[in-house]
Design brief:
- The chain is an alpha+beta fold.
- It has 23 helices and 15 strands.
- The strands form four sheets. It has a five-stranded antiparallel sheet.
Length: 616
């Protein structure tokens, strides 16, 4: 069963305001609620240009027919129109085809609807490319990037929270072919809310839970109808969906008695693949296919469905797999590392070394932001010389040399050298930039993941702890939208606390062992902070009691203490002052309280009736 079939089982898209397909046309146009949209096929002499749906990946040399999107705000004719190249387009089925254009109401705060444009790229199992284009609250046009919503099928649109605006339902394609064939793979739902040009991930929010529950139930029914074929493909999906609903232990318990114990090397994972490394760089033990529960535990940690602690609690035997999935990665791809570079190989293979390199990267990128584009070249040259000096001091091989053998103390020496550089260059920073540079890498990764979830970074972004230009722009946008006092592009400790929803702490540089622990703790904190009960900031406590309870108890004690005087007043005795004096000054002794009570009951009343005392 493919992901498209699974999605269809969960429900079809809600209808758009208006819809059009290119088909055999040269021009299509739509209009609704003040938005005019059109797509034209235009002959271009040279199509080697970047496009919205193709990016730089589908450059076509020479002439082609180019699909061009134009949007206009008819409610504000003075505003400029939006025009963009969508993609080179073919109607004969040989290339990008099946262009569709919808106008939908996705942003509850926007008076204009949004344009949803999508194409199909062909192939047996690939791929629909989709972008949403809309106007932000400041009057500028913005478009989502295709990787955010790309998949085998077009995303679904449905009003999950019943606010009148449709949410977008996509799926996690990383589950395809991982534990089962394409037909046996199921892909967990990913739910977005479109807000002011951003895709905000609300998959784990409580409002999405009924949709996830319904989808999971329908998918399970379909799997049962298929005679529970390729169980591991469905069970990986089931556990992931349960994790998104906050029910990971229940999902894991459901999986254990049902999974296929036979290890299929074609649909399994190893510690090597979980670590994102090339097989040639791994030992035979690291390349060995893992049993399904261990592979799944590592896979879910790598995909941020669960934390390392959650996975370890469910599968203690998967500790090695979880460590491989949760290790630090250098600031370059280990799938295609630099050739003849022993240092690069070390960084890909050793999480500790990569952690120290990333910590220095934070200092470097903070300095890079401070000096600006005009100072980038000089700063980079200076840093390269400094890093080369560390390599030489540690006896590390020169990149490109025939012999790339590393000395026995390579990792420890390299880590110490990078820490020294971090401290040396950190002295050039101050204020929020300095606070940011001291933060552990685990927190940087958690902050980037939070920016991704809130839509300030594209959904397809990788949280690697490196704050490049896109992350800086996301920080600025978040600081402006939330009214932070300093829109500096740096995350101060106070900013970080607000972004993560945690109390601010004094940042400090951690040792490697502490940093690994911190990485797990931060991830756990990020996924659970919203569900923990929070005490009121204004709560006052006295003797272990809340303020109101303490006041009531005090009032009751005072009333009990003055019971003798109250009785004297009710009886209107002739010596009420004497009763009050004994009650006030000696009542605390116990005997004094009893004496006051006897006096109150025995003294003669002022308004004694004719027969009240004599009995006549």
């Amino acid at each position: 069963m493919s992901t498209g079939i699974v999605t269809a089982q969960a429900g079809e898209s809600s209808p758009p305001l208006v819809h059009a397909e290119m088909g055999e046309h040269e021009h299509i146009a739509l209009a609704s609620a003040g938005l005019n949209a059109s797509v034209d096929l235009v002959e271009k002499p040279d199509c080697a240009v970047a496009t919205l749906l193709g990016g730089n990946d589908t450059l076509v040399s020479g002439a082609c027919r180019m699909a061009v999107l134009t949007l206009k705000d008819s409610l504000h004719p003075d505003r400029p129109a939006f025009t963009t190249l969508l993609t080179p387009y073919s109607r004969d089925g040989s290339d990008v085809r099946d262009l569709q254009l919808d106008l939908r109401h996705l942003d509850v705060a926007s008076p204009l609807p949004q344009a949803v444009v999508s194409v199909y790229t062909g192939g047996a199992h690939c791929c629909a490319l989709t972008s949403i284009v809309g106007m932000t609250k400041n009057g500028t046009w913005t478009a989502t990037q295709p990787p955010e919503l790309s998949g085998e099928g077009r995303p679904l649109f449905t009003d999950i929270d019943k606010d009148g605006a449709q949410e977008i339902v996509s799926s996690d394609g990383s589950f395809l072919y991982t534990f089962a064939s394409h037909a046996g793979s199921y892909t967990p739902s990913v739910i977005y809310r479109y807000t002011d040009g951003r895709l905000v991930d609300i998959t784990t929010d409580s409002v999405s839970r009924p949709y996830l529950e319904r989808t999971l139930k329908e998918s399970e029914g379909f799997w049962v109808q298929q005679d529970r074929n390729e169980p591991n493909g469905f069970l990986a999906y089931y556990v992931a969906m349960k994790a998104n609903m906050g029910e990971f232990p229940a999902g894991w318990s459901y999986m254990l008695p049902r999974y296929d114990h036979e290890i299929d090397a074609g649909f399994s994972l190893s510690r090597c693949t979980l670590g994102g490394r090339l097989e040639a760089e791994c030992t035979p033990e690291e390349r060995k296919p893992l049993p399904f529960p261990q592979a799944l535990a590592g896979f879910l940690v790598a995909g941020h469905y669960v934390t390392s602690e959650q996975a370890l609690a469910a599968a203690p035997e998967a500790e090695a797999a979880i460590q491989s999935a949760n290790g630090y990665r250098p600031d370059f791809s280990c799938s295609t590392p630099p050739q003849k570079n022993g240092v690069a190989t070390m960084l890909c293979e050793n999480s500790d070394a990569a952690q120290h390199e990333l910590q220095f990267d934070q200092v470097y990128y903070a300095l890079r932001q401070l000096v600006g584009p005009g100072g980038w070249r000089a700063l980079k040259q200076e840093i390269i010389l400094a890093e080369n000096a560390v390599d030489q001091q540690c006896g590390l091989p020169v990149p490109g040399a025939a012999d790339q053998t590393l000395p026995s103390n390579a990792t420890g020496c390299y880590a110490a050298g990078m820490d020294t550089l971090s401290e040396q260059y950190r002295k050039k920073l101050s204020g929020p930039a300095l606070e940011e540079s001291k933060r552990p890498i685990a927190q940087h990764i958690a902050l980037q993941r939070r920016l991704i979830k809130l839509g300030y970074l594209p959904a397809a972004s990788t949280a690697d702890g490196v704050y490049g230009e896109s992350t800086r722009a996301a920080i600025v946008a978040w600081q402006r939208d939330t009214g932070r006092p300093d829109v500096s592009s740096f995350l101060s400790d106070a900013d970080a606390a607000v972004l993560l929803g945690t109390p601010p702490v004094v940042a400090e540089t951690k040792s490697p062992a502490e940093a690994i622990s911190q990485k797990t703790d931060t991830a756990q904190q990020e996924t659970t902070i919203s569900s923990l009960p929070q005490p009121s900031k204004n709560t006052i406590r006295l003797f272990g009691l809340s303020g109101i309870t303490a006041l009531i108890a005090a009032a009751a004690g005072i009333a009990l203490y003055f019971v003798p005087f109250v009785i004297a007043c009710v009886r209107d005795t002739v010596r009420k002052p004497a009763v009050f004096a004994v009650n006030l000054f000696f009542g605390w002794t116990g005997l004094g309280w009893i004496a006051a009570l006897v006096m109150a009951c025995r003294f003669v009343r002022l308004n004694k009736g004719p027969s009240s005392e004599t009995g006549h």
